[in-house]
Amino acid sequence: MRSPRISVLIATADRPRLLSGCLESLAASSFTDAEVLVLDQSRDPAKLPPEARAGSGLEFRQIRCPRRGKSAALNIGIAQARGALLAFTDDDCRVARDWMQVMDRADREPGERCALTGRVPGGDAEGDAVVAPSLRDDGKERIYRAPVYRDVLFGNNMALPVEILRKVGPFDEGLGPGAEAPAAEDNDLGYRLLRAGFPIRYLPDMVVVHRSWRGCGEQFGLYRGYGLGQGTFYGKHARRGDLHMVARMARSLWDAGRDAGGAVLLGRRYDLRTSTAFAAGLLKGFFRSTLVPGGEERGAVEAGGR
C-alpha cells in the first residue's frame, strides 16, 4: 500500500467534543494525500466521530496509547506514522482548509530541509471562556537558525520531515500535558532542532486556530503548568552547563515580574494572577530539574523510530 505524503498526529485524552471539531476541520482539508493518527489516551475511548469517516479522502486511524502523557502518545504515533512529513496539532484546535497544502508546498521547495511552524490566532471566546493563551499572530515569514530568547516552534502547528526527527530524537516524555512538567515539550524539541543545526521556518500562511474554551479559573492552573514545564525545560539544559538556558530563565522571571507589576498598576487582577502563577511554576520547575537527578529525554522510541 502506498504511503501517504503527510501524517497528522493528534494526542487526545477525554476531550471528545474538542476532538470532534478538530477532525471536522481536517476532513474539510483541500489536501488529501494524508493520514490522521488520533493518539487516544482517554479513560474510555469512543469510536471516532462520524466526520472522521466522511468522504474526505483522508485516512483516519485511532491508536490506543497505554503510556500517559502527550509526549508519550506522540512518540507512539511517530513510530506508526507512514508519511514523509509529520504534522502536529492539538485536539482543541481547528486547522485551515489549506493547512497541509501550505506545509507540503514549503517542504518541496529546493534547498535545505526545515522544521515548519505557523500562525496560531485565538478563536472567539466560547460561552464564558477567555481568550486562549500561547498564540502567535505574526504576519512576517521568518527563518530561525540558532536559539533566541524565546520559543519559536509551536506544538499545535508544526511539521517536520521524518528524517530530521530521526536525527534529533523523539519528544521528551518528562515534558508535556500528562507529565509531571505539563508543558514545553515543543519548546524542548525546537531548541534541540536549532542546536543540531536544523532551521525552523515560520510561515504566516500555515494557520491553526486555537479555540478559546477555558474559563478564568482553569486558566490560572494552565499558566502554572506552563511555568512548571518551561522551568523544567530550562533546568534540564542548564544542568548540563548550558548558560543560554540560565540566561533565558533569568529573562523569563524578569518578564513575569514586569507583567505582574504592570497588572498591579493597571488594576488587572486576572493578568496579575496569571503572571504570578506562571512565575511560581517556573521557579519550581527550574529548581526541581536542576537539583533533582532525572529530566533526561525519556523517549519511548529511538531517534530512528517511525
Any overview of this molecule?
The structure is a single chain. The chain is an alpha/beta fold. It has two domains: 6-212, Spore Coat Polysaccharide Biosynthesis Protein SpsA, Chain A, CATH 3.90.550.10; 216-291. It is 40% helix and 18% strand. It contains eight helices and ten strands. Strands 1, 2, 3, 4, 5, 6, 7, 8, 9 and 10 form a ten-stranded mixed sheet that branches. Helix 1 links the parallel strand 1 (6-12) and strand 2 (34-40). The longest helix has 24 residues, at 243-266. It is globular. The two termini are 17 Å apart. 46% of the residues are buried. Mean pLDDT is 90; it is low at 295-306.
Brief rundown of the structure:
This protein has helices at 16-27, 70-80, 99-108, 162-168, 185-195, 216-238, 243-266, 269-291; strands at 6-12, 34-40, 59-64, 85-88, 93-95, 115-119, 122-125, 142-144, 158-161, 200-212.
Count helical runs: 8
First and last CA, distance: 17 Å
CATH superfamily of the largest domain: Spore Coat Polysaccharide Biosynthesis Protein SpsA, Chain A
The CATH topology of the largest domain comes to Spore Coat Polysaccharide Biosynthesis Protein SpsA, Chain A
* Overall CATH architecture of the largest domain: Alpha-Beta Complex
Q: What summary fits the major beta sheet?
A: 10 strands, mixed
Oligomerization category of the chains in this entry: single chain
Rg, Cα atoms, Å: 19 Å
Order of helices and strands: EHEEHEEHEEEEHHEHHH
Number of domains: 2
Which spans have pLDDT < 50 for at least 5 consecutive residues?
295-306
Please tell me the overall pLDDT: 90
Helix content: 25-40%
